[in-house]
Amino acid sequence: MASFRMLSVVLLGLSLSYSATVTAQTSENTDKRTEETATRTLNNGNLVLENIPPIPARIGEQLNRYQNIRSAAFRSFSADGDAIYISTRFGDVAQIHKVSEAGGYRQQLTFFDEPVGGIARQPHSNTMIFTMDAGGNEFSQLFKLDPASGDYHMLSDGESRNGAVVWSHDGSKFAYQSTRRDGRSNDIWVMDPDRPDEAELVVAAPDGSWWGPVDWNHDSSKLLVVQYVSITDVRIHELDVQEGELRLVEGGELGTNANYPLAYRKDGEGFFFTTDQFSDFTQLAFRNTTTGEVEVITKDIAWNVDNFALSDDGRQAAFTINEEGMSQLYRLDPESFAMQRVSGIPVGVVGGLTFSPDGTRLALSINTPKSPTDVYVLDSDDQLARWTFSEVGGLNTENFVEPELVKFESFDGLTVPAFVYKPQQDGPHPVIISIHGGPESQYRPYFSSTIQMWVQQLGAAVIAPNVRGSAGYGSEYVSLDNAFNREDSVKDIGALLDWIDSQPELDASRVAVIGGSYGGYMVLASAVHYSDRLQAAVDIVGISNFVTFLTNTEDYRRDLRRAEYGDERDPKMRAHLEAISPSNQVEKIAVPMFVVQGENDPRVPVTEAEQIVEALRANNKTVWYMNALNEGHGYRKKENRDIYEQATVLFFENYLLPED
């Protein structure tokens, strides 16, 4: 079996809010002095809150049902195909569960304090490898699990960063990505799970790019390898495992473009991959390794291909396209390349494509604007059965709001898409602009309990734009914010504010911005440039200074980020990065700010939050600060997310909702 989900820096931008009225303040300076001494901890000392007022009990009661919505994601079929393994949360974090029939009982198999990451089941066995880190530090370790007994043990060294596990077809070994050689290089290793101490380095990454295994050929003598330099420069290599020879087959010296290997065809004649060599979009293609010929399979589809799966016997394939953020599913004949669109799939975002061991069924994780992710199974007659029914906190999903796709014109004439969620009652409504991270990511209309909560409880409209630099709209669009054009994406937010001002059902005098990671930078930059048009801003694990960020982010990802943001070692680029960094322009920020951070964040270090908070305080600005000592790049533990969401609601009640 080979399945592939497009490599991307998928970043969860946590968001939140609520409703109330602001209390009168006798003096802004008095308020600042009071806040400076207001530090307390929650959740056994793991959550530090500075300058955040006590959260009223009514807010927790308001949010309780929204905060107890669950989801379920497909991970694997069992070896006999009769059951599935999923990840879902019944306690504080997501764990592995087994479901033996459609709509059946979810049997929990793991019980860790940390969430379980990726899962790769051993062929012809139910034994699986799963990944798990500690405290959100993203230094994931590999664990071998026997689902029948629950026994597990660590296979990796306990120190390096590991993942991207790909089993050989006979299940005797697996390839994986690891930084164990020097702590920074993203190398490829091969391990026999019964002899983990004898793991072999097979690709020593020669530079700062990311290298990972994708698929073994039919006799496990060769390995498809991806090398990720940047979102517009992705290369495919083929490794002769026995000889150690690594051969570049797509991209790089052959032309700079994005090429993602997917799977070898079982007849050994070549492999499937996606590429933007022949179009502005990512197309599905097949390379014949004997003749060298490339055939583009989806040449008549003007959207990105973003998921692909091939059955174990090689007779069935399937893929999805990303059409304006929504998924469309296709079946594919791997030999003739004949394809057919599958009807009857719920309108939403599809992932986790995996064929059953016998190739007769296809598992899908489906998320719709009105329902959280659940697992479905499609049979050979295209009949869809729902296998999991995740709880929605007792809420009526019919009351949930579906987004409207709108497009607005930016400062230079560029058309920018955005999804708009509006309350059902009459406006004008206060507005929350939610900005995704990445930046090479894309807001897609996933179900969001947070957005539904804002709309239903706060009466706020939520707008999620895909500013320039977002994925999903072609290679040219994704490159429009690179290097010295970084602030052009911030200008897109200015154009969105203009659009809001033209909409009678939206209140342009009450607008807040919220975003995580790169979206956090966008929040800070928006506050720098548009404080006169904003009422509040929430920065979650955001970049406050590009130079300090590039200096302090973990070694294994520094060169990857330089490819996107620019190399701070170049004097001209360094001067530009310093000039656009929000921490150097704090005097221009004139809106209340809520900064949210995880102490163990390896991507955007805690120092990025600390320096912006310190600078804001030094300039006598209103700033709330929350830091989770047991989290990393975003909050994964429910107890921390709950408090964060409640505090965000209180923040919006105080600074966004009150009318003049």
Q: What would you note in describing this structure?
A:
- This is S9 family peptidase.
- Residues 446-656 form the Peptidase S9 prolyl oligopeptidase catalytic domain.
- Keywords: Hydrolase, Protease, Serine protease, Signal.
- GO terms for molecular function: serine-type endopeptidase activity.
- This protein has 660 residues and is of the alpha+beta class.
- Helices cover 18% and strands 33% of the residues.
- The protein has eleven helices and 39 strands.
- The strands form eight sheets. A ten-stranded mixed sheet has the order 2-3-39-38-37-36-34-35-33-32, sandwiched between helices. Strands 1-24-25-26-27 form a five-stranded antiparallel sheet, with no helix packed on it.
- Helix 5 crosses helix 6 (518-530) and helix 7 (546-552) runs antiparallel to helix 8 (555-565).
- It starts with a strand and ends in a 5-residue tail after the last helix.
- The model is unreliable at 1-37 (pLDDT under 50).
CATH hierarchy: architecture of the domain at 28-67 and 394-655: 3-Layer(aba) Sandwich
The total of beta strands comes to 39
Q: How is the biggest beta sheet arranged?
A: 10 strands, mixed
Quaternary: single chain
Name the poorly predicted regions: 1-37
Helix content: 10-25%
**Order of strands across the widest beta sheet?**
2-3-39-38-37-36-34-35-33-32
Gross morphology: globular
**End-to-end separation:** 60 Å
Structural class: alpha+beta
Radius of gyration: 24 Å
CATH superfamily of the domain at 28-67 and 394-655: Alpha/Beta hydrolase fold, catalytic domain
Instruction: From the 3D structure, determine the CATH topology of the domain at 28-67 and 394-655.
Output: Rossmann fold
The number of helical runs is 11
CATH class of the domain at 28-67 and 394-655: Alpha Beta
Beta-strand content: 25-35%
Provide mean pLDDT, rounded. Answer: 91
